[in-house]
Write a structure and sequence with these properties.
This protein is of the alpha/beta class. The protein contains twelve helices and 26 strands. The longest helix has 19 residues. The model has no long low-confidence stretch (mean pLDDT about 90). It is about 30% helix and about 25% strand.
């Protein structure tokens, strides 16, 4: 702990849900000169990931699902760098900037909020031909990619090439995968009115899930309802099926199905940030930081953690399962962050932190415009009401009034004038024309 004459140095690793909300509350509630707060993240913004499918589908302007860290955390120090190592013994964090510069940041109190990264499986061709949907860059790329497949298919007469271009595969039947599939298919179907040579039945959308059901976050009957609705839209759903090979876009499934697909979206799970393995922090078998219920790291009172990278006991379920941990979702992350900021201030002032307790109130998912499912407070909701609940819940959780208003305006404009369905392919390779000119 810093001396009485010096402010406590609080360093927050990560600018996602937990990092942003924790720093935001600290900057509002800390007394003058009580502590300094430094936030370190490789991106200068926080991304509200539940809105990425809508950003990819054109219902929301991509910039509006991000929150600029420097603008929002105007009383904090923001460093755009990647954390490479954590040394709790020396109370030092090693960071590396995009330019390659390496620096060490000292701390008195550390918040580990590094979140999770995409978990890839060793499937041949996946790294080369797959794309995830965890960043704003991936959302923009997917939107342009899907629409450009329609442009290319409308411009070719080769049947095999056309079939491959119009076949879209999503691997992973959790919330992220199903929402991405629903929004992108809805966007592509809406765009077809401008492609006179492509019929809706020419497109092929495929969802592959290894488990016996999709949407494990809601009750099984809602998962079955979602499968029925997707299949009614002509979407093929493969359950208890693995993707074994996707080399060169040739998809081979474990049930023997084979086909060509020029779009492969991977949403089959996440894992804790791998940098945690290079630290001396205690981690569990899944690579997450082991915490107490107050979100203090075990045996390290100066270090705290929450969110997707933390193994925090779920006190609402410990009676039925003594080893229950909080699920890695936005609902827990936002609520953990609010208490985490209070606990840090309490600890700095010599008090006793409180344990985190929150009973999951349910989940909501969008399946495209005016379509959704919700399972909240033990009540099932389907269709249009569930879609409204999804939008209402997530816009209420979007940080800052500025971003809430911008998203609401995006929805109004898209509802009145329809979504823009033009592919800006140059964004994916912005120097292509410049390099072509240099060669001519």
């Amino acid at each position: 702990m810093a001396s009485r004459s010096q402010p406590t140095r609080i360093v927050v690793l990560g600018g996602g849900y937990v990092g942003l909300y924790t720093a935001l509350r600290l900057q509002k509630k800390l007394r003058s000169n009580e502590a300094s707060v430094t936030v370190i993240d490789p991106q200068p913004h926080m991304t509200y990931q539940p809105f990425l499918p809508e950003a990819a589908a054109g219902s929301i302007e991509p910039r509006h699902v991000t929150v600029p860290l420097r603008r929002t955390l105007d009383r904090c120090h923001v460093r755009t760098a990647r954390v490479t190592a954590v040394d709790p013994d020396r109370k030092v964090v090693t960071v590396k900037t995009e330019s390659g510069a390496v620096d060490e940041v000292e701390y008195d109190t550390l918040v580990v909020a590094l979140g999770a990264v995409t978990r890839l499986l060793p499937i041949p061709g996946l790294a080369e031909h797959g794309i995830g949907l965890k960043t704003i860059g991936e959302a923009v790329y997917l939107r342009n990619h899907v629409l450009s497949r329609l442009d290319l298919a409308a411009s070719t007469s080769d049947a095999a090439t056309r079939r491959k271009l119009l076949t879209f595969t999503v691997i992973g039947g959790g919330f992220a995968g199903v929402e991405a599939l629903g929004e992108l298919e809805d966007m592509a179907r809406s765009a077809l009115k401008y492609y006179t040579t492509i019929e809706p039945n020419d497109m092929r959308w495929v969802l592959v899930e290894a488990a016996p059901r999709i949407l494990p976050e809601v009750r099984e009957s809602l998962g079955e309802y979602t499968v029925d609705k997707l299949r009614a839209r002509g979407i093929e759903v493969y359950l208890k099926t693995f993707a074994q090979n996707v080399t060169n876009g040739h998809v081979q499934l474990s049930d023997g199905t084979e086909y060509d697909s020029d779009t492969i979206v991977w949403n089959a799970g996440v894992k804790a940030n791998p940098v945690l393995a290079n630290s001396d922090l205690p981690i569990d078998e899944r690579g997450r930081v082991t915490c107490t219920a107050s979100m203090r790291v075990v045996d390290m009172p100066e270090v705290w953690s929450a969110g997707d990278c933390a193994a925090v006991p779920d006190l609402s379920r410990t009676q039925e399962d003594p080893n229950a941990l909080c699920a890695p979702n936005a609902q827990h992350a936002v609520r953990e962050a609010r208490l985490l900021a209070k606990n840090i201030m309490t600890a700095i002032r010599g008090g006793t932190p409180k344990d985190y307790y929150h009973k999951n109130v349910g989940s909501v998912a969008s399946l495209g415009i005016h379509k959704g499912v919700a399972d909240t407070f033990n009540v099932k909701v389907k269709g249009y009401p569930a879609w409204l609940m999804h939008r209402a819940y997530h816009v209420s959780r979007m940080p800052t009034f500025n971003r809430k208003v911008r998203i609401l305006m995006d929805w109004v404009v898209a509802g009145v004038f329809r979504r823009e369905v033009v592919a800006l392919g140059q964004i994916n390779d912005p120097k292509a024309e410049f390099e072509r000119a240099a060669r001519s």
